[in-house]
Amino acid sequence: MTKNELIVKVAKKSNLTKSAASDCVNSTFNLIRDTLVKGEKVVITGFGTFLIRSRAARRGRNPQTGETIQIPNKKLPGFTAGKTLKRLIK
To answer: By its UniProt entry, which CDD domains does this protein fall under (predicted)?
Structure first.
């Protein structure tokens, strides 16, 4: 499902215009993004948790030269599905 398909489905389910549904969906995504940027996690009960994960620094290898390189640590967004969502997908 694409973002546009999500907007259309939200508009139909909630009897909103496509423009209003677009504002709702975009606002939700922006709030999740802004909260993650602050370093906080977002817990949506029955759905899952969005959080920031840290990947430790490690050694890697340049595939072209075979040279060993140091890969720095970094932060990545992550999602963990909640119990309810996991049960529904089974």
So the answer is: HU
